[in-house]
Amino acid sequence: MEKRIYNEQTGICYTLQGDYYLPDLSFPEQENKPIGLWGQRHLRYIKQHRKILYTNLLTNGKLNGYLADLDKQAEDMFFRLVKQMAEREGVTEQLKAGNQIEWVVRMNNIRNIVTEIVNTYLIYI
Percent of the chain scored above 70 by pLDDT? Predict the structure, then answer.
């Protein structure tokens, strides 16, 4: 038996694996962009809960770009909301200089609230 055959009708090469001929298929090339925390959270979510979306993005070669874009959007939204909420709540550099513990408590509270907002509107959708 031949190790490799080519089907002219389909244009696909097949390789002998044991007793079976399996098609030589590969994924399209993807851009290798770094994916941060938000992108990794969304990846974990779509792998578990949105399997069709995950499979389509993976097989089209768009998964990495999609996750990198979402990660950038989430990070921008996070920093913008933290800044806006800190201004609205009166968490300033003066508070930081005068009462560091109070500043840390209030900033941690703001960061936790904003994390939940970003998770709700961008990550777990």
Answer: 97
At 91, the amino acid letter reads V
What's the pLDDT tens digit per position in 83-109?
999 999 999 999 999 999 999 999 999
In angstroms, rounded to a whole number, what is the distance separating the alpha carbons of residues 7 and 5? 7
Burial class of 23 by CB neighbour count within 10 A (0 to 12, 13 to 18, 19+) = exposed
Q: What six digits make up the tokens of 53?
A: 């979306």
Question: What's the CA gap between 103 and 81, in Å, rounded?
Answer: 17
Rg (Cα) of the chain, in Å, rounded? 24
pTM to 2 decimals? Answer: 0.77
